[in-house]
Amino acid sequence: MHSSKSSNVGGISISQINELEMRTERDYFGKVDIPKNALYGIQTMRTVQNLSFSGQLLKNYPEYIESLAMVKKAAALANLESGDLSPSMSNAIVDACNQLIQGNYHDHFIVDILHGGGGIGTNMNVNEVLTNLANEYLGGTIGEYKPVHPIDHVNASQSTSDVCHTSIRLAIVRCFEQLDHELTEMYDVLERKSHQFMNVTTISRTCLQDAMRIQLGEVFSGYASVVKRRHHSLKDSVNSLLTVNLGATVIGNGVGASERYKEVVIEKLQDVTNMKVTKRNNLYDAAQNIDDLAQTSKQLSLLATTLIKVAKDLRLLSSGPEAGFSEISLPSVQAGSSFFPGKVNPVIPETMIQSCFQVLGCDRVVQAALEHGELDLNIFEGMAGTNILNGIYMLKNSTNSFTERCLKDIASNNERCIELSNTFIPVITELKEQLGYSAVSKLMKEHDREYIKNLLK
């Protein structure tokens, strides 16, 4: 359980805060005490105090922080070219962005990543951190917000809407690179197992009942094929997120941004990210609808559903070792029971299954965020993007474990497979191919199983 916000603020306990030297910041709603050296400011603290509930802090999402910094860097460069920022201010903001992109100061991102308000807390957290870093660069003092101001300069020509819309998509694309690698490795291992087991004859099953003979390698070829298909579909969906709305400001009309800024900001973002980022055709659509995120999440859930099926099959095929299917052996990684000595359970496939259950839950949140968008701005977009990131993080970890600690060292139990392939149903299926369905049905009425099996000897 996470501590309640009454005893914990942004991961810092109240007792720790009481021991820190503080500064005071003021806004229209009053004043707030903030740790003196904190790079965040009063708007960040307002979000922490008012909108925290999940315990999932922005500082634990490095790809998102770095993507936010990339967007802010592109905006600062575009504002320089449009004349909306002086060279000294732009340079200071760019330097601050580079610090975050390099992984520095992430501990200052203390807002709950699932806060309400359409992502305002996320945008203000990054604005305040960048402002304080930029002012330090220019010889200023943390917390004074001059000469660089979080709204007038760091957020110039932008809104929370287009900043967070763009950043969360960049974060998903960047985060997916790790899962992309793991899925490629999983496919390669399943392909190798398919070739390794192609000479092993076993029994197939339909409706959980005995069916015809099959090569164990053919079973694994099916697993490899579906993983590859789902991987490619997910990758296509993730890549579609590189079409963004930066420059559209709040609802898509670009009010608050100069024409020159809007002309060059996507080009600057391409340079900063080294990604093939493009602008959405209809920027009002981008503000209103998050079906591109929902589509990516749905592809992630289809992958998860597929991996549940594969992991469940492996549990069944390895069941036993004496009273189950026992056609394959999974690697033993730890004791399976605190009660049965020597019992080894399929804990890695079971972990894979539970990870996928969680991904399915994340997808439901994303679909709800799509369903509950209203009028001209979907304010639940950040929650949708965060749950996609959560799903990717979990699948990246669980697929790595599944591949490295299970799939790579699966072994076939050849004697058991031969035994099962010579049971009654596979035998009469082969006999049917020789004599026909009706003739074999007649034989089964007139003779016992041993007589029919002897016909094929």
Characterization of the model:
This protein is mainly alpha-helical and 457 residues long. 59% of the residues lie in helices and 8% in strands. It has 17 helices and 10 strands. Strands 1-2 form a two-stranded antiparallel ribbon. Strands 3-4 form a two-stranded antiparallel ribbon. Strands 5-6 form a two-stranded antiparallel sheet. α5 crosses α7 and α7 (160-196) packs antiparallel against α8 (216-239). The radius of gyration is 29 Å and the shape is elongated. It starts with 7 loop residues before the first strand and ends with a helix.
Could you give the topology of this structure?
Elements: E1 8-9, E2 12-13, H1 14-19, E3 22-27, E4 30-35, H2 42-51, H3 62-82, H4 87-101, H5 120-137, H6 150-154, H7 160-196, E5 201-206, E6 209-215, H8 216-239, E7 243-244, H9 259-273, E8 278-279, H10 283-288, H11 291-317, E9 328-329, H12 347-371, H13 381-405, E10 411-412, H14 414-421, H15 424-435, H16 437-446, H17 449-454
Parallel strand pairs: 7-8
Antiparallel strand pairs: 1-2, 3-4, 5-6, 9-10
Helix pairs in contact: 2-5, 3-4, 3-5, 3-7, 3-9, 4-5, 5-7, 7-8, 7-13, 8-11, 11-12, 11-13, 12-13, 15-16
Q: Tags for this entry?
A:
457 residues; mainly alpha; two-stranded antiparallel ribbon; two-stranded antiparallel sheet; 10 strands; elongated; disordered N terminus
Order of helices and strands: EEHEEHHHHHHEEHEHEHHEHHEHHHH
Structural class, from helix and strand content?
Answer: mainly alpha
Spatial order of strands in the largest sheet:
1-2
Helix content: 55-70%
Mean pLDDT: 93
SS summary, helix count: 17
Percentage of residues in DSSP E strands: 5-15%
Number of strands: 10
Uncertain stretches: 1-7
By oligomeric state, this entry counts as single chain
